[in-house]
Amino acid sequence: MSQWLALIAVIVATCAVVILIAVLRQRRAGDDDDPSETPDVIEYMTMMLGVVYAMVVGLAIAGVWEERSAAEEWVQREALALYEVSQRAEVLPPEARDDVQGRIDDYLGHATAAEWTHMVDHGELTDRGTALLGELRDTVTSREPETVREVESYQAMVDKVAAAEEARIARGESAGPTMPRLVWIGLVTGAAVVIGMVFALQIQRSSRELVLAGLFSGLIAFLLYLIWYFDDPYARSLDGAVEAFTGLFPQLVAGSGPG
Q1: CA distances from 75 to 79, 104, 133, 244 (A)
Q2: CA distances (Å), 135 to each of 98, 129, 153, 241, in order?
Q3: Please, are residues 97 and 89 in contact by the beta-carbon 8 Å criterion?
């Protein structure tokens, strides 16, 4: 089952459960049950709880979206830095040029296949990727430039390799869930409290109220799913970010990363 089908199933199930509970509660209510006797203070508390919870959910969505954008940016920076090194290496003699570009291909082949999967599964980078990028750095810095054009490209290649290392480290730090478990406990508990207050207001007076209660509960389920979807960007919302590498380096095997 795809993630979007799972989302639809969760929303429909949430709406159905809320409506079912409301209908059962209405059938079991006695003749002396009067929904109009709901204290005004409960309605005020429900309103305040809804506002506070909406603010918390909004901040959570903004937080995970910001982390997702940062993760995507680090991948693009790493790919662009390595692409710039490859282009700068064109001024080198054929043997030196092929050596640099071969190191780049070795690193990218590992990064888009083994390391990306390892990063998604374990939330960390691989030692092999670190070693391959170190070999690229050593290859670039080990050869002294001999011509004016090589001198101009040398420092740029060194800077871009350093930029790729920085972006890779940041990519590793962005791997895995970004929301603390305590925040998730608060979000789920808050959802239960807010939906529970709907029943405290005795939502059972008309089919229109039942539909609105179901839609309200479905909206909360959707927002929680949205937070979960963006919470681990490389595993879900950025599962195609590896295309930042394959787009600049078509020699890589298409689809070597997750997708």
Answers
A1: 6, 15, 15, 7
A2: 14, 10, 19, 24
A3: yes
- 238-88-102-141 Cα dihedral, nearest 10 degrees: -110
Whole-angstrom distance, CA of residue 57 vs CA of residue 191: 10
The residue-averaged pLDDT of 185-192 equals 87
Placement of tokens 């195609």 in the chain: 240
Let me know: does 214 contact 18? Beta carbons within 8 Å. Answer: yes
Per-residue pLDDT band at 3 (split at 50, 70, 90): low
Q: Among 1, 10, 26, which Cα is nearest to 226's?
A: 10
Residue 219, pLDDT score: 87
Give pLDDT, residue 257.
41
- Contact between 191 and 220 under an 8 Å Cβ cutoff? The reply is yes
Q: What is the pLDDT of residues 40-76, one digit of tens each?
A: 666 677 778 888 888 999 999 999 999 888 888 999 9
Angle, helix 127-142 to helix 94-110, in steps of 10 degrees: 170
User: Backbone phi, then psi, for 234, in 5-degree steps?
Assistant: -70, -25
User: Of all residues in the chain, what percent carry a pLDDT higher than 90?
Assistant: 17
Is 253 in a helix, a strand, or coil? coil
CA dihedral (225, 230, 231, 237) positive or negative: positive
Map residue 144 onto helix, strand or coil: coil
Cα distances from 110 to residues 65, 70, 84, 114, 211, in angstroms, run: 28, 22, 19, 5, 52
pTM of the shown model: 0.72
Distance CA(214)–CA(203), nearest Å, equals: 10
